[in-house]
TrEMBL record:
Matches recorded under PANTHER family: GAMMA-GLUTAMYLTRANSPEPTIDASE (AFU_ORTHOLOGUE AFUA_4G13580)
UniProt-recorded name of the protein: Gamma-glutamyltransferase
Coiled-coil features, chain-numbered ranges: none
InterPro entries linked: GGT-like_enzyme (IPR052896), GGT_lsub (IPR043138), GGT_ssub_C (IPR043137), Ntn_hydrolases_N (IPR029055)
SUPFAM superfamilies given in the database record: N-terminal nucleophile aminohydrolases (Ntn hydrolases)
A UniProt-annotated Pfam family: G_glu_transpept
Lineage top rank: taxon: Bacteria
Length: 537
């Protein structure tokens, strides 16, 4: 049972933490949160609310996700946690040799080549079929409405949309990218903050997905449009790849941290990194949050966990390392012993940026959902299927063209995946869903939010608002602009190469919903770095 007594201490601020009883939806965009709340108020459950919010986010936050996204979900219902892996494999016709024949020395970030099978529509259908209460046609109605009628851009969305447009104007010269500009930059410019944008093609595609329970996307007219466009431009994803796809129900993995169970999705997702870092940190006693020694040990633990995660994580069927061993205390102890008074310099990795949406949902019956969906690197591949609003992800970019690499490209293989939903339980009862989006920041955000909650007793909004750090490679650490300078100086003295970022972009955007098991009261926090909102009932 989670001890919530600290929330009522007269000297602990609960600024902006939202409390409710019947239901709650936390997302990075207010209209999507309202879409989830609408599903609850129609008689739906938390699963319906999560699907409604996820579908709406493809419309109201297209700079981070789309209909052509991948997705992962953890669902707490009936006293059990269920996991859904809706990431897609590489096409059957792709190979290292075939990609190199097109002139590439490494997997490209944009265009038709890095597109793998998108899983998000299949995730909506699978979640609805297994756990939902409302018809999918009702659940997707708010998303369809936003696409048909339009909506005004929110500030953070507008910022990233404009940034992507400026970049794409420079790098997207081929005709295959024209539908992106037709869809997201009509009349040659992007919509301004507060300006109304609509996408009729997006609405039509969502209607078709809702009416066919996503069958059209994988085995119908939408599948034909997707495969034909990719085939036209020399890509590998085919109608047969789409037809063969089904999301996978999997068992989440966990570690015990100071009396709580922290849950993540198993590989090919990178949630294992967060669990490994917590295992290393578990051997230390953290007496104070804002001190140099605490941050030093946190960074070192994450650095070691990430180095190992990048070395081992790939498609679950091809992993050469045993997950149980990587989560064992013996393994954690061996890594923990490497942490001394000065910064380590492990094998470095270049960590790219990403684009993802995370949401959390809960209802008054005890059902809870942790859900994440992403195109990758903002708008994804830059490929939009003409007339449909379907922006396709570019997850294949994370494959290696080195045959000896753990994540070497292979037909039918799932790549290392950055998007990870999180969940927290205690004594067999749900505490609730949590997540922090943004590429390789995600396990680092999970690690920091969980420590803020459990070690330092911060309520959801405080746990999200606290200044964040991000290890990037070697001894390099980025910190947010408002990270205290005396801590920066102290970390530098310990050998860290600390750089203060110009803004909070790239440090993740998260949501949290915790549930009091005694009263059923829900309390939620939403990301101050986004346009986020907690819709409650």
């Amino acid at each position: 049972m989670m001890n919530l007594d600290y929330l009522y201490h007269p000297y602990v601020s609960t600024r902006n933490t939202i409390f409710a009883k019947k239901g709650m939806v936390a997302t990075s965009q207010p209209l999507a949160a309202q879409a989830g709340l609408e599903a609850l108020q129609k008689g739906g459950n938390a699963i319906d609310a999560a699907i409604a919010a996820a579908a709406a986010l493809t419309v109201v936050e297209p700079a981070s996700n789309g209909i052509g996204s991948d997705a992962f979900a953890m669902v707490w219902t009936g006293g059990k946690l269920h996991g859904l892996n809706a990431s897609g494999p590489a096409p059957q016709s792709i190979s290292i040799e075939a990609v190199k024949k097109q002139g590439y020395e490494k997997m490209p970030a944009y265009g038709v080549v890095p597109i793998t099978v998108p899983g998000a529509p299949a995730a909506w259908a699978a979640l609805s079929e297994k756990f939902g209460r409302l018809p999918l046609t009702d659940v997707l109605q708010p998303a369809i409405r936003y696409a048909e009628e339009g909506y005004p851009l929110s500030p953070v969305l507008g910022k990233y949309w404009e940034r992507a447009f400026r970049r794409f104007q420079t790098i997207f010269k081929e005709e295959m990218f024209r539908p992106w500009f037709d869809t997201f930059a009509p009349d040659g410019t992007v919509p301004a903050i507060g300006e109304v944008w609509k996408s009729p093609g997006h609405a039509a595609a969502l209607k078709e997905i809702a009416e066919t329970k996503a069958e059209s996307f994988y085995r119908g007219p939408l599948a034909e449009k997707i495969s034909a466009f990719i085939r036209k431009w020399g890509g590998f994803l085919s109608r047969e790849d789409l037809e063969a796809y089904h999301p996978e129900w999997v068992e989440p993995i966990s570690t015990s941290y100071r009396g709580y169970e922290v849950w993540e999705m198993p590989p090919n997702g990178q949630g294992l990194v967060a669990l490994m870092a917590l295992n290393i940190a578990r051997g230390f006693e953290f007496r104070e949050k804002d001190c140099v020694d605490t941050y030093h040990k946190q960074i070192e633990a994450m650095k070691l966990a990430f180095t190992d995660g990048k070395a081992f994580i790939t498609d679950a069927g091809e992993m050469k390392a045993d997950i149980a061993h990587l989560l064992s205390e013996g393994y954690a102890a061996n890594r923990r012993r490497l942490i001394g008074d000065l910064a380590l310099d492990p094998e470095p990795y270049e960590l790219p940026k990403s684009g993802t949406v995370y949401l959390a949902a809960a209802d008054g019956e005890g059902n809870m959902v942790s859900y994440i969906q992403s195109n990758y690197m903002g708008f994804g591949s830059g490929i939009v299927v003409p007339g449909t609003g379907i922006a396709l992800q570019n997850r294949g970019h994370d494959f290696s063209l080195d045959e000896t690499h753990v994540n070497a490209l292979k037909a039918g293989k799932k790549t290392y995946h950055t998007i990870i939903p999180g969940f927290l339980t205690k004594d067999g009862e749900a505490v609730g869903p949590f997540g922090v989006m943004d590429g390789y920041m995600q396990p680092q955000g999970h690690f920091q939010v969980i420590m803020n909650t459990i070690d330092f007793h911060l309520h959801p909004q405080q746990a999200l608002d606290a200044p964040r750090w991000q290890w990037t490679e070697g001894k390099k650490v980025l910190v947010e602009p408002h990270f205290p300078n005396h801590l920066v100086q102290g970390l530098i003295r310990k050998g860290h190469d600390v750089q203060v970022a110009a803004d909070t972009g790239g440090f993740g955007r998260g949501q949290i919903i915790w549930r009091n098991p005694d009263t059923g009261v829900l309390m939620g926090g939403t990301e101050s770095r986004a346009d986020g909102m907690v819709a409650a009932w």
